[in-house]
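so my prof wants the structure for this chain in the tokens format not the other one, which i didnt know existed until like an hour ago. anyway here's the sequence
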Amino acid sequence: MKTILHTEGLNKTYQLGSFPRTIKVQALNNVNLSVASDKPVIIALVGESGSGKTTLAKVILRLIEPTSGAVNVAGHAVAGKGNRPQHNEFLRTVQPIFQNPFEAFSRYRTVDSYLHETAGRVAGLSKGAAVDAVEEALNAVGLEYKDVRGKYPNQFSGGELQRASVARALIPHPSLIVADEPVSMIDASRRMIIINLFLALKQEYKTSFLYITHDLATAYYISDYIAVMNKGSIVEFGDAKQVLSNPQHSYTQLLLDSIPRLDSKWVDHR
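here's what i got, hopefully its the right format
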């Protein structure tokens, strides 16, 4: 089986304040997570705010350096020890989708210019091939190129702009897309459009997703595996159905107990 995501002894410590009154905050505490599969998967990373989910995402995306430990994605050492790929090679391996799409695009640039830049600079495509790749990615997320071309971020709804973010991430055909709370800023009525899109794209593009959320219901619906995070550590990991129907850690049970539902058992409707 192929390694999709592997973290080993991952730690991140922040030092707050100034000498002599400094405080050390352990954002990641010996995070060990290993997922291998012969087919693309969706891994949900769940936990309350402040549990370390976004810090882990930032380390995987090389936005911050870990204090110690290592991260490997699809055979590439992306953080910590090992020969790490150059920036564009890295972006062909891992792509981000951020929480707020309006912060991912400058209001002074057209949205399609970002997509063309990704196709040319990151994917290394010629001008003609880049146009085809942008159109293909937009079509995959339910958008038409003619409806995106020349438009600025404020001319889109939040859901439309997030779909454009997904299209941008798809262009280099990465091994892993890290989606950090990708539907939390979108109207509730539109959230399932993005969720179902991830399920479809996993098969169409053969891309795995790390879906970061505090919402156990969508995590259960979308994921093959679930990792539960608390106080900077992975406290439980396994098959999504197994973890949520038969939790082994008290924190996982606490998260489940906080969800209002009609029956006492999780029912698989997938």
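also thought this was worth mentioning. Residues 188-204 form the longest helix (17 residues).
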